[in-house]
Specification:
The chain is an alpha/beta fold. 45% of the residues lie in helices and 17% in strands.
């Protein structure tokens, strides 16, 4: 059944469809005497190769009548990476403004490519935290595989990154670097002492005086009662602030140094290194940011980006909650510090934060990193609400059952009372749930349970039907993503 397709491959034209086979024409690539293209029949995609030589021989597949049909496996992805380097993730060596486009399903990258292809954005198509991997039953190599195959499918050749997101241990960092990560986001939250902020002045002093005297003298000699002036910002560091910062962050600073010296600095390839200090109980004081930045500089630690916790609420899947003028003043201070030390500010939980995007673009002078992730999952849910209402109702009901479990993993202020009952909503109105902030958060944080929960017989309750439905409406999903991410980019002045 592929004979005509092979004939097309060898000729001057390539028919986009033949006997139910879709050919992704933008993927057609040549290496010496071999040609390879991505095709799809039903729900299954394949690499179809013809010709001869090293590329043809390296692909693992089934040969017949002068062509080879290969599944999109991890091993074949590595073959594509070798012979078509644009399919492999790379570091953002040009320090372009960048956006993390996490994909929990392994299906979103074609839509992301449509959104970014005519921009100068450096996209991080492969971005997944350990928690998300656990919740979706994926491995990090699966994430890079999906992104690489999508890049090949769409013929996208402008470069993309792979972020080992929110990694907390050296073991996880080494593992994901070995698998192909080109960016490491170091989450130091387990080394940050959030209890310090709740201490009274007396308790603070007692705890501080228990510290090793050499640690106290080191920080006091450098920072106590010092007036700091950098372009656009003046800071004054008193004893109380210094005590809080030392107790809160000194262990995290030491951990960052260990990771950098033991792993990052000796890594054989270019690498983007991000420091995350946003997983804290309260916003990051600019003085805290300054002390951390100065300590990194003095320890010869080079970073690409830093993610402080900003004023206001950055809850999952909904717009920013807070005073926009206060946010403006806050990010302005953090940008002044970042620019002084030569790195970019990173905005985490950036999905759907439309009201602050123009501020981010202006105050960072167009140089930043923004992370999105869960919004791509919500676009998939919206497609199902539009196209498969009966399945959506089951997903929604299951999310309600699992909501209390999910709140142990995510901080949200969802009020279930604000979500209309499914019984009161007609099928045509189901997509309106994705415009309701409380419903968005309900569906956002329960994704893991929707994808992995099983019945007593060990059968998935929703996972298989969810993917089957999304596969039936893949073009709708891709269009949704293009429009949704394009809105992000437009408000960030990137498109």
């Amino acid at each position: 059944m592929y004979k005509q397709l092979i004939k097309d491959l060898k000729g001057d034209s390539l028919k986009p469809y033949y006997e139910g086979i879709k050919v992704y024409t933008d993927s057609l690539s040549e290496y010496l005497a071999a040609k390879v293209v991505m095709i799809r029949q039903g729900a299954q995609k394949f690499l179809l190769a013809t010709g001869s030589g090293a590329l043809y021989d390296a692909l693992i597949g089934y040969e017949n009548n002068g062509f080879k049909l290969a599944f999109p496996t991890h091993e074949n992805r590595l073959v594509l990476n070798k012979y078509f380097p644009y399919t492999a993730p790379v570091a953002n060596t040009e320090h372009r403004t960048s956006v993390g486009l996490g994909d929990r399903l392994g299906l979103a990258t074609p839509g992301h490519i449509r959104a970014v292809k005519d921009t100068d954005v450096f996209p991080i198509f492969a971005q997944q935290s350990v928690r998300e991997l656990d919740m979706t039953h994926r491995k990090y190599e699966d994430v890079i595989d999906a992104a690489s195959y999508a890049v090949f499918q769409e013929g996208y050749k402008k470069g993309f990154g792979a972020d080992g997101d929110h990694l907390k241990t050296k073991e996880d960092i080494l593992k994901e670097l070995d698998l192909g990560a080109t960016m490491i986001t170091l989450d130091s939250s387990e080394k940050i002492d959030n209890t310090i902020l709740d201490l009274s002045d007396e308790e603070l002093l007692v705890k501080y005086e228990v510290l090793d005297p050499s640690i106290r003298s080191y920080y006091e000699d450098k920072y106590l009662d010092k007036d700091i002036a950098i372009e656009g910002l003046s800071l004054s560091i008193n004893k109380k602030q210094l005590m809080r910062d030392v107790l809160t962050y000194y262990a995290a600073i030491n951990f960052i140094r260990e990771v950098y010296e033991e792993i990052i600095v000796s890594f054989k390839l270019p690498l983007d290194f991000e420091i995350s200090i946003d997983e804290t109980a309260t916003p990051t004081n600019p003085i805290s940011h300054y002390i951390i930045a100065q300590e990194l500089k003095d320890r010869n630690i080079l970073i690409s980006t830093m993610a402080p916790r900003f004023i206001g609420e950055f809850q999952k899947g909904i717009d920013y909650i807070g005073d926009l003028e206060m946010f403006t003043q806050d990010i302005r201070a953090h940008v002044a510090i970042a620019e002084h030390y030569g790195y970019r500010i990173s905005v985490h939980s950036g999905s759907d934060k439309f009201s602050i995007f123009p501020i981010v673009a202006k105050e960072t002078h167009g140089k930043f990193h923004v992370k999105t992730a869960g919004t791509n999952w919500l676009e998939a849910i919206e497609v199902i609400s539009e196209k498969e209402p009966a399945l959506y109702r089951e997903i929604h009901a299951h999310a309600l059952e699992r909501f209390s479990d999910a709140t142990a993993l995510y901080h949200v202020t969802t009020n279930l009372a604000n979500i209309p009952s499914l019984h009161d909503v007609e099928d045509s109105k189901l997509p309106d749930y994705l415009k309701n902030n409380d419903a968005r958060q309900l569906l956002h944080i329960t994704y893991g349970y929707i994808l992995r929960d099983q019945d007593e017989q060990g059968n998935f309750i929703l996972r298989e039907r969810f993917f089957d439905a999304l596969d039936d409406h893949m073009e709708d999903y891709t269009k949704h993503l293009d429009e949704h991410i394009s809105r992000h980019l437009s408000l960030l002045n990137l498109k």
